[in-house]
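Fig. S4 source data, part A: sequence.
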Amino acid sequence: MSDLLQDLLSLVWTGIVTGCLYAMGALGLVMIFKATRVVNFAHGNLAALAGFVVYGLTAMGGGLGWFASVLVALAIVIVLALVSYGLIARVSEASDLRGTIATLGISLVLQGAVQVLFGADIVNLDLPVPSWSATVAGLRITSYDVAVLAVSGSVIAVLFFVIERTRVGIAFRAVSTSAFASRVCGLNIHAVQGLAWGVAAGLGVTAALLIIPSTFLSSTTVASFMLQSFAAAVLGGFSSLPGSIVGGLIVGVTMNLFSYFVTSELSATFLLVLMLVALNLFPGGILPQRGGGSRA
């Protein structure tokens, strides 16, 4: 196998791993958009707060184990997500754009709160998995890769099962299709929309806790990571949950290839160009929401 082909395979593999995390972040954004027609710019800041809560409870003398700390962080972030939804629900009913702008304000408040509570320092937060690696068909596979694929695959499978096979999923799909018709039929749309915000927060926290060990944790890094998830949602079609997964994988692989063969300093520029090209070629996304029998 030539060196170039070996490099390509390694880059595609690591791109798929990070792409799974972008996809989970994008799924949260799309769930909120489908339920409320609001683009949640506070998604990354909520996830960052969870990362700092876990760091505070484990590394700063909190005395809790990693899994217990994650449960505490999840509970805090889900409550904050519901509070955020409660704050913008009436605003977004009047105008989707006003609701989206309101999330910008919430994101700034959360970012400021993180800096006040935990400071502006950069810290490390690892996963509690044993460190090992193996070489398979020339690819170096680490325990981190396996953990990311196992967790993201399981979470996404459960999410799609709930949406496709449960009454809660039917309610979510109904509200996503028409909030007005759902209200006329007696559905409590605020409960369904609040549930979407809570689940989206959980997806964001899971993605953030998995991506942080590969970089570092600061008050802005997770929010920056969510920009890649935003691009994945745009590529896949902002109303399509399967499209988010495809978009995440495309963003992960293409950004890896661009950073290696061109330059990593222009990766943000590349991401913007990628979104512009995709919007021109596929205005509704690569996998736009279908009519009729469409579900997710």
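Fig. S4 source data, part B ends here. The radius of gyration is 19 Å.
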